[in-house]
């Protein structure tokens, strides 16, 4: 007796119930076959050139290409087949590290789910991005990231040298974490120490360099945000270095 006969056993041949059971079984097989045929399309339909253009919106947090380094988010060179939460030199959320320890790796399928709704796919992620609803756009981004994974890996963060730039003096200071915690009382009225980003970006676990650069950009009106400009206008190098040391020392939950 084959599988269809087993599943329709107990019904009289030709009866409405028998026909319904056979039709249901056939529908399940067809649906399964369609899923198997559709799955690989995600890996091949994307256009890396279009993906590169779409990725411009991601560059505020993620670097790619030659000399890419960790910043607000981890660099994304060599992302494919990398276990989640394992890139050396970046402080991931506990949720992301747990996912990697359980065996999740980044590929076309996991990236598609994550980019669509990051907070649903990885509850507790630090990434404040709300998600990319357009499947075709996600496919283009994924194709672009896949191409980058074929290139030479980015240089390691520890090899980075500080170049003259805005905030360079503060970057040379070994910030006082205790002083930074004292100064942070006004910061944490908006930025949650838990690392959650409910409409306001998380600054927990930020690397020193991008943290200092961001504060100086607000301080000098390079970034336009009245509240942040008011908060940073009177901060000196010592204060900014201390805040960077404190917030960078907190492990995201």
What does it look like?
With about 250 residues, this protein is an all-alpha fold. It starts with a helix and ends with a helix. It contains 13 helices and no strands. It is globular. It folds into 2 domains: about 50-150, Cytochrome Bc1 Complex, Chain D, domain 2 (Orthogonal Bundle); about 165-250, Cytochrome c-like domain (Cytochrome Bc1 Complex, Chain D, domain 2, Orthogonal Bundle), CATH 1.10.760. Helices cover about 45% and strands about 0% of the residues. The longest helix has 23 residues, at about 15-40. The chain has helices at about 5-10, 15-40, 40-45, 50-55, 95-100, 110-115, 120, 135-150, 170, 175-185, 210-220, 225-230, 235-250.
Compute the number of structural domains.
2
User: What is the tally of beta strands?
Assistant: 0
CATH class of the largest domain: Mainly Alpha
Largest sheet: none
Please, what is the CATH homologous superfamily of the largest domain? Cytochrome c-like domain
Keywords: Electron transport, Heme, Iron, Membrane, Metal-binding, Transmembrane, Transmembrane helix, Transport
Organism: Roseibium alexandrii (strain DSM 17067 / NCIMB 14079 / DFL-11)
GO molecular function: electron transfer activity; heme binding; metal ion binding
Pfam families: Cytochrom_C
């Amino acid at each position: 007796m084959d599988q269809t006969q087993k599943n329709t056993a107990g019904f009289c041949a030709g009866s409405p119930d028998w026909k319904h059971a056979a039709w249901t079984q056939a529908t399940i097989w067809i649906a399964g076959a369609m899923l198997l045929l559709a799955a690989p399309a995600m890996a091949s339909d994307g256009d890396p050139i279009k993906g590169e253009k779409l990725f411009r919106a991601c560059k505020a947090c993620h670097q790619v290409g030659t000399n890419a380094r960790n910043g607000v988010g981890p660099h994304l060179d060599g992302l494919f087949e990398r276990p989640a939460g394992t890139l050396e030199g970046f402080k991931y959320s506990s949720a992301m590290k747990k996912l990697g320890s359980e065996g999740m790796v980044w590929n076309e399928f996991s990236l598609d789910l994550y980019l669509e709704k990051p907070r649903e796919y990885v509850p507790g992620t630090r990434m404040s991005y709300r998600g990319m609803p357009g499947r075709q756009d996600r496919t283009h981004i994924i194709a672009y990231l896949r191409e980058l994974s074929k290139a030479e890996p980015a240089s390691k963060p520890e090899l980075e040298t500080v170049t003259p730039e805005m905030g360079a003096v503060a970057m040379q200071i070994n910030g006082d974490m205790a002083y930074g915690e004292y100064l942070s009382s006004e910061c944490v009225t908006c930025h949650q120490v838990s690392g959650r980003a409910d409409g306001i970006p998380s600054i927990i676990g930020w690397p020193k360099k991008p943290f200092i650069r961001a504060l100086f950009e607000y301080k000098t009106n390079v970034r336009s945000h009245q509240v942040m400009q008011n908060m940073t206008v009177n901060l000196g190098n010592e204060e900014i270095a201390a805040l960077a040391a404190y917030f960078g020392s907190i492990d995201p939950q």
